[in-house]
Amino acid sequence: MSAPPRVPSPCVHICALDDEDICIGCQRSMDEIVRWGRMDDAERRQVLVRCAARGRAKGAYFGDSP
Questions:
Q1: How far is CA 46 from its chain centroid?
Q2: pLDDT classification of 2: cutoffs 50, 70, 90
Q3: What is the top-level taxon of the source organism (predicted)?
Q4: Beta carbons of 33 and 23 less than 8 angstroms apart
Q5: 25 neighbors 31 (Cβ within 8 angstroms)
Q6: Rounded distance, CA 33 to CA 9, Å?
Q7: Residue 61 CB-density burial (10 A; 0-12 exposed, 13-18 middle, 19+ buried)
């Protein structure tokens, strides 16, 4: 039995930080971006929830994200 696929990066290749050091493309913090490769899937899912909340707070559309 194969392992389930890893939680994919939310990067949308619009990489620029706002005044709060949050990426305007994916809504991750600088720390989350740097640590992403070392996170397990549970941590990555938590980051995605925070990204969606940040995006909604800024009026960005995040579809059916958690």
A1: 9
A2: confident
A3: Bacteria
A4: yes
A5: no
A6: 9
A7: exposed
